[in-house]
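Issue 218. Parser rejects a valid record. Input:
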Amino acid sequence: MKLSMLVLLHFMLIHTFVITVSTLQAQTIQLHYDLRHSVSPAQTPRNFAVLYFEYFKKQDSGHSFIKPGSFLFKTEADLLGQKSNIGKFFLQVSQSFRCWEPKVYLSLQYSGGAGITEPRQYSYYITNTFSAGAEYPFQWQKAWFSAVLYYKYVPYIRSSHDCMFTLYCWKGLLNYTLELSGDFSMWTENKDHGDDLTAGQKGKRFFFFAEPQVWYKLTKNLSAGSKVNLYYHVNIPDDILQIAPTVAIRYKL
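Output the parser choked on:
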């Protein structure tokens, strides 16, 4: 993929985000306390707080030529640095749309971020990732789902071209007092990124990430709940499924 195409895709996503944010009607701010040290003390030095912001909008105009579908913007700041400073930041933005009658959408997505370590010379980027694919929203058993199959491009020194599948889900229970939601993703990437650390490794590595959530509404805007982060090869190359539960509060604007 040429650099000009990446710049165009990046611009389209940011442009869409700016337009959509101007008409925001609902968003959530979440404060999590991540308990991964309590679950796996050998892998994580301590538990930490996480600030999380998410906006999701579902729209589909049957009148315009370009019919926008779902829009998702989320950021995550892990307060795992010294004195609870931000140690990792992650951003994801995606937009789907269609120019045809069947309700299968073209979806564009960008993600990236960075992390700060001690000592500082081992700080890192979460490499920019550009994805494009087909999204199919549907309902089943009174729950909402959206399945997305992406072509995924990661511009490592030795670029990785892969497929990624993501399933989003949401269901309200007890007259929407209880919410179940989450997303589940699986993909592959080159083991060799073209750097000294991964040089000589052959083939692809399989990745899995999921974040099922449960929320109980306390007031009109305030909910208490939990999220369980599931990682396989996302944080470490070992063949281990990492489990990181949280306790959380959520304020929905």
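Fixed in the parser; the record now loads. The chain has one domain: 3-252.
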